[in-house]
Write a structure and sequence with these properties.
It is a multi-pass membrane protein. Its main location: membrane. Keywords: Membrane, Metal-binding, Transmembrane, Transmembrane helix, Zinc. It comes from Stentor coeruleus. The protein is mainly α. It folds into two domains: about 230 residues, Up-down Bundle (Rhopdopsin 7-helix transmembrane proteins), CATH 1.20.1070; about 90 residues. Helix content is about 65%, strand content about 0%. Strands 1-2 form a two-stranded antiparallel ribbon. Helix 5 packs antiparallel against helix 6. The chain is elongated.
Length: about 400
Amino acid sequence: METEQEHKISQEKKENPLKICSWHELNEHEFIKDNEYIHHGYRMNFNSSRKILNSLFMIHNETANVWSHLLGVFIFFCLLGYTIAWLGIPGKVSEMHIIEDLKETIISSVNDLAHNAARYESIIESQMIELYQDAYYLGHKFEERIFSMYNRLSSANETNQFKPLVKKLENIIAKIDSHDYDWIDLYNDRYKTINGVSRWPIFVFIASAMICLMCSSIFHLFNAHSSQMNRNLSSLDYAGTSILVAGSFYPTIYYPFYCYPCIFYVAYIFLYLSGISVASAITFVISFIPSFQDPSMRWFRGMLFVVLSFLGFVPLIHLYFLPQSNMFANGMIYFALTGISYLTGVAIYISRVPERFYPGKFDFIGSSHNIWHLFVLSATLFHYLGSLDVYHTRQSLTCFS
């Protein structure tokens, strides 16, 4: 015998069955209507969280929108792990700079010992070959080779001219062994902080991308729940976009301007980052104004985010006219692809192509909103690649001031 609760649920299912229906069947579900060129695939009576979550694995006109950005969240979660595990640790000595330093020292010492070249040539050559082979297996193998070279050169007491080389090797070994402060981002060792570059701007971008993509997925999954839920989550969706725009420009601005004298660097960072953050915050607030969600505001919404994005490109235009701009050329290519992806996606979103020309043919996949989602995802991936490029470029620069 069924309980009262089970009877109530059974009765509700009979009276309000779950349906994937057409535009004309929505009736009291007018809040779902957004694009008159999408004729089928609307969810009706999915008025509980359980029902909505079940629809995650159903075929409807929001399936592609939900999963495209859920996939994006997963991708950026993996990229976060990669960035933490494999990207150069802030404050840590760049191994390649150690190798270059050692190479110059050895060449200089060998030139000073020209008259002993015949005797020591085989020793130096064999050690150099072994050292370059082991450069790709840095860590404990690298340290073992350095110690081996140090011991062999120390025993070669036929001449005192090797003492500067031995002393240099001792200093390098000491630096390799000094791990006490490698993990501290703000450790002020002059040698280490030249090429020890903070990763936090990249983490800000990754976090903003994950927030935006997750907000988008949640909105498209739950927008059939109720009118109030639809409106609230629509605001959250647009607010997430403003967060992404703000977060995107932190690595874009932070790394290229890093080599400025302190006062100018701080001024530019404050001006540009605070400017784009304030503009994004204003857009964030506007996103929660009820009328902002109206279908008639589609053009305004699209242009608002285009303008917001262009504000962020002002510092890139500034960078173009600076002496070091050519150093960041590769990164700028990725950022240009980011901008092109966003602009193309917005144009498709606003114009509702291709469903405008073939109503009802792109209800489940291939609509302008589906395409917009793919362009957003590709833009964020381009931006991540650009952020890595300017990070590594900044890491390779020597900018004493």
